[in-house]
C-alpha cells in the first residue's frame, strides 16, 4: 500500500530539479527520490513541511562532513513560496552568484548561505524580504557595495556580511534596523566619513564585528561611536583594523563599568602591545574570551592576573618573552583554553621552581603551544603540574627531542587529542598511549621515533579501542611488519603509516575490520598490498600507497572505491591498460597521482564530469594517442614523459569546461603545428610543451593567455618570429623557447611588456641583428640566455647596470629588494663584436658566457681590444662545481612554499655559482619544479 502523499507535487519536482542541477551531493540528498521508494518529500532529509498545508516551509541543507557541490540553480526553488527557513551554509556552490530571484521568497524569516563559495554582488532584491530576521552571507567571495535596500529589513535581528571583499561606504540605512542585535561586517569600507551615527542608532546591538577596516584607527568619530556602544555589548570583535594602543585606550578608558556586559573581546591582527593587555586587565573582570593573536605583544606583566573569569585566551603569533609562564599566570577554576601558537617560546618559559608548582592545578582542557622553539622536556613537566584534566594538546612543529617522558601516560590520562608531530622526538613509540582510555586521535608524525607497531599494539590495553579513530605515525623510523592485530582498533577512520621502513604484506585481514576507514596512508614503505578480495568501505576518501608493491595488474579492488577524494598509486609497478571503470569512478576526485608506472594504451574520451577540478599526474607512463578532452576539467594536468601525439582535439574541444591552470605535456611525441585555439584555456598559469616535435609558427592565440606565468617550448621545431601577441602575457616569470628554429630579431617588446621575467632563454635559435637595449628593462631578470644564435654588433652597455648578487651568505629579504640582480648570463656562440662592457658585475661572468664570438674582446676572454694599451692579465677560471648540488638545492628550496616570489626556488640557485653554471644543463628539469609551486597556489581553488 502506497504511503499517503503529504507534500505538494510541484514542490516535490522543484526539489528534484534543484538536486539534479548540482554536480554532486555526496549522498547528502540520498533520500530525495524521484521514484516510488520515497515519494513524500516531507520525509526527505533536510525538509520540513507545514503540518496542515503540506507546503515546504523549511529547507536545511547545511553542509558538514558532506556537502553540496556545483553551480546552484535558485530558479528551481521558486515554487517553494511558503518557505520560511533556508540554510545552504557550508557548501561549495563554485562561485555562483546570488540571483535576483531571491527576492521572491517573501515569507523567508531565516536565510543563511555563509561559507558556501558564493561570489559576485549582493542583490538589492534582498531588501524585499520584509519578514527576514536572520541573514547570513559571511565568508564568501562577495564584492561591491552593500545595497542600501537592506535597511528596509526592519525585523532583522542578525546580519553577517563579514569575511568578504565588500567595499564603498556602509549605507546609513543599516541604522534603520531597530531589532538588530548582531552585526558582522568585513571589507575595504570607506570609514573616513564623519557620519557614523547610523551605528549609534542600533540600540538593540549586543554583538559587533568589524574586520579588515584598514583605516578604522584613523577615524576618531568611528572610534567614539563604537565606544558609546561598548557598555551594552556582550561581544566585540575588531579584527585587522590597524588599531594601536592609543585607539584601544580611546575605546575603553572612560568605560570602566563595561565589564558587567562584555564577555568576548577579539582584537586580533592589529598593532597592539603589552600596554593594551595591561589596560584591559583593569576593566575586564567579567571577560570570558580574549583574542589578541597576531599583534606586537612581547611582555606579559603581573596585571594579567586580573582576568578572574577568563575561559579562553589566544595570544598566538606574538613574540612573547621567554619567561612568560614563570609565575605570571594565575589560573582560575574557569580557565579552559590557552592558545600560544607561534610565540617564539623557549624552554626557559617553563622552568619553574618546585615551590611555584606546589598546589598548582587548573581546569585547562585545551593547550596549543605549537610552532614554538621548545626543545627539552620542560614543557611536559609544566603540563604535568598544571593540567590534570587536559583533553586537547597541540605541541606540533617545535624542536622537542629525546624520548617522550614515561610520566606522560599517567599525568595526562584525560587526553582525547594529542599532536606531537613535526618535532625531533626519539626512542620507541611509548606503549602507554594505548592505555589512555579517553584518547581518540594520536599524531606523532614527522619525528625520529623507532620500534615496531606490534609492540605498541601488544603492550597496551587499548581500553580506548571503541573510540580511537586516528593514528598518525607518518615519516618516522618505524620498522617491522604491520601486525594483523591492528584490526582491533575497529573504530579507526584514519591510519597514516607512510614514510617509515615497514615491510611485509598487507592483506584483507589487516583492513577488513575498519568499517569506518576514511583515510589510509602507506606510501613510501616496502610493503606489498595483497588485497584482491578487499572491499573498501564506502566512505574511503584518502588513499596513499605510493611506492608500495601493488602491481603489475591494475588493482581490481579499487572498483568499489567510488568515493575517493585523493588517490596516490604512483610508482607501484603497475602495467597494462587502465580499465574503463576506473575512469568512471573519478567523479569525486580532487587529486590523482598515477605517475611512474608502466601504464599503456590510449585513454578513451569519456563523457565524464570532474566537478572538483582535480590535480592529475600521469607522468612517466606509456599512455599514447590523443589526450582526452575530459581532462580539460582538471586544474592541473601533468602528462610529461608519455607517448601522447595529438594536442589539437584535446585543446580545441569547446564543449568541455576548462579550468586548467597547469598543463605539462613535455617529453611526449607531439608532432605537427601547435593548434591556434589557446583562447579556450585562458586560465593557464603554467604551460610546458618542451622536448616534443611540434613545428611551424607559435600561434597568435597563445597571446591570449594573459595569466600565464611560465612558458616552456624548449627543444621543438618551431619556426618564424615570436608572435607580438605574447607581449600581452605580462605575468610571465619564465619564458624558455630555446633549441628551436625561431628567427628574426629579438623583439623589443620583451623588455617593454614582460617586466616580470626572471628566466629568459632564447638559446639555440636563429635570432639575428643586435641585442635590443630594451632587455635592460627586465629588472627582475636572473637568468638570461641568448647563446647559439646569429646575434651581431655589440653588447648593450646597459647590461653592466645589473647588480651582481654576492656568492657569499646573503640575507634573502635584502636580496629581494635589489632592482637589478642578473645571476646568469650566456651570450656565447653568436657573432657579437666589440668590447664586453666593463663593470663590477660583468666581471663576475667567466669566459663561458662570451666564448664563440670571434670579434668580441675583453678581460673575461683574456683578449685585449685593439684600442687597449695594456695587456689584460689572465683570470683564473671559476670551478663550476658538482652539478648534483643543483638538484639538492632545488629540492631544499621547494620547502619554502609557493614562491615567496619565485624566490623560494630560484634564490638558492642564484646565490651559489656552481648552481648558476649548472643551469643550462638542467633547464628542462627546472620547469618541473616551477609547476609544483604553481600547483600549491592552484590548490586554494579547491574546497
Characterization of this structure:
The radius of gyration is 32 Å and the shape is globular. Helix 2 (197-200) links the parallel strand 9 and strand 10. The two termini are 44 Å apart. It contains 17 helices and 51 strands. Helix 16 (903-911) packs antiparallel against helix 17. It has a 34-stranded mixed beta sheet that branches. Strands 38-40-42-44-46-48-50-51 form an eight-stranded parallel beta sheet, with no helix packed on it. With 943 residues, it is α/β, with parallel strands linked by helices.
Helix and strand content put the structural class at alpha/beta
User: Tell me, what's the shape?
Assistant: globular
Radius of gyration: 32 Å
Number of contiguous helices: 17
Integer average pLDDT: 84
Strand content: 15-25%
Largest sheet: 34 strands, mixed
Weakly predicted, low-confidence segments:
804-820, 871-929, 938-943
**Share of helix among residues?**
10-25%
Distance between the termini: 44 Å
Strand segment tally = 51
Transmembrane segments: 890-912
Domain Disease resistance R13L4/SHOC-2-like LRR: 104-314
Family: Belongs to the RLP family.
Pfam families: LRR_1, LRR_14, LRR_6, LRRNT_2
